[in-house]
Design goal:
Radius of gyration: 22 Å
CATH architecture of the largest domain: 2-Layer Sandwich
Distance between the termini: 23 Å
Number of helices: 8
Shape: globular
CATH topology of the largest domain: Alpha-Beta Plaits
Structural class: alpha+beta
Largest sheet: 5 strands, antiparallel
Order of helices and strands: EHHHEEEEEEHHHHEEEHE
CATH class of the largest domain: Alpha Beta
Length: 294
Amino acid sequence: MYFSRVRVKPEIRNLSHLHHILHNNGYSAHQILWDLFSDKKERSFLFREEIAGEQIPHYRGTRGEPIYYIVSKDEPIKVNPLFLTENKPYEPRLAVGDRLSFKLRANPTIARKEAGKKNSVRHDVVMDAQYQLLRELSRDAGVECVGEKSKLKEQILASWIATKNADIGAMLKLILEQNERYRELLKQELGPSKLFDLALKAVIDSALEKWLLDRGKAYGFTVVRDDKRDLLKFQAEGYRWHALPKKGRTAGFSSVDFQGELEVTNPGLFVEMLFNGIGPAKAFGCGLMLVRRI
């Protein structure tokens, strides 16, 4: 396996808009990066886009430009009219108990059986977590659970304030209580709107935490806890929806950026994951976990 860092050549960057086309466009980036490999019959690489900055101080003009990290079965072609590539063999040697910092851009989804459908249906974890909470709150507020999420939230909030329904307040506080990263906020004076917003964020945070921990069980790692507060050392942020108009009017996928610290529990499974990635949308820049020894 090979690990590569790929940048647009300065002359291309300065004379064209290629980097603007590539930036935040996983589909276009994947198609062009594929040209770095001689065997184009099947995709044999993972990639992640980042924005260059202080990490390459010697390379003038890179700040704000896209940079790609690639893990591939074959070594990328070094001579290319568009890109500068830096390649090295990638042979992680890990043992049980090794601790690593990690960064992961993933497309977190959950499969669920639905009435009347033979196969499970995949749902966006973030959207699903919000919908499940709004559905429960709608029932307690006496509001029909239909329409846009923002409108539904307004209706629930208005009903709660008007009726002073204690069950809704208790449910939202319980959500914060059950999330170790949000529990401390209960010590603050929280009005209905603020409590509602925090509960929505907390339920998303908990869903993403579960998704990551479940992946860890399957791929040989666990997220570690800090020594001072005994909290899981990870963050999940940067939720984005990426439209794919070429595949249909409503086609697209979401991505979330995870980062934190992990401990290897099964080196074989973990290294296999580093090579093969995590979750769907790998062709669009998701699934590659970048790790570094602590």
